[in-house]
Amino acid sequence: KVSIRELSSELSQAIIYGIIIAKQEMRRIDSRKQPGTERYVLNFTLRDSLTDTINAACWGEENAISKLSTSFTIGDVVKIRNPQIIERQSAASDEKFKPSTTSHYQLNIHPLYSEITVCQADERRSYEKFLHCSTRSISEIVSLADVVYDCQTAEGLIINLLVAIREIGTVQNVKTKDGREVKKFQLSVFDQSHPKFNILIWGEETANFIIKYCQKRSILLITDIKINYNAFTKEMAGTTGNMTIFTPDPDIPDARVLYQYAMKTALPADKIKDSNSTDVSTTYTMEEILKFIHSTEMNLDEIQGTVNAIISFFDIDGTSNT
User: Fold this and answer.
1) Mean predicted confidence (pLDDT) in 17-42
2) Do β-strands 279-280 and 272-273 pair in parallel, antiparallel, or remain unpaired?
3) Could you tell me if 184 and 235 lie in one domain?
């Protein structure tokens, strides 16, 4: 048994334990060495301590990699036997499409020579906590207000977010321009600075992970997510990529503060449109509004809605002090 920190390219027959913190979809790669042939690859990221992470790639024929892909998911603790340990080439073109890791090595896994098994019970217990460890310093986290209200600067940036979940969507099937079937999934989130921000998640692996581990008002640390302007909704939005890692309920003080805020904050109702395209939102009485004003637990900036009332006095000249 070897830890990620102890890895060396000179090691052979190594056995490595860790928890899967990210996993991409299986991809087809055209072989450079043998034109006209293709291989399949499955990438994932492993963690075995508070600080140590490493990327791994499984290479092989379609059936073998497809079978391997269904054998484990994000959040599983796995045992990897006899991987090839190679030095990571930081300048390699594919590095920018992988999550950032601490190890100077990466693991190459071939189904014929290596083995991945999912751990149970006692073997799993000591690694489960690492799923909630932060992968970024709190100083690297950006607030949603900075993204939404500084859109010219934020456009195209890769950033880190600490957010609470407002709404979890459903997984949808989408056909790409080149005919591939892919999965997409929308997540609505918020923080203390802004009530709603949409995130588009590509890939069934990450979507299933969030559905399994999260619920409304759960806290998420999202690292390396891309920010773009959505022309259809006319707002800024986040889009995940192969570098993105989701950390549910991260074990950091700022996450606990955000959780307390999320649990006591009344979220504004989303505006919807009926058949006549008329905006409909939550309707409040004057009594309810007065309670909001005098409440110490409500953030008035988060309250949006409709009031049906008769105007009994209107100082059109604006000279009244009352």
Assistant:
1) 87
2) antiparallel
3) yes
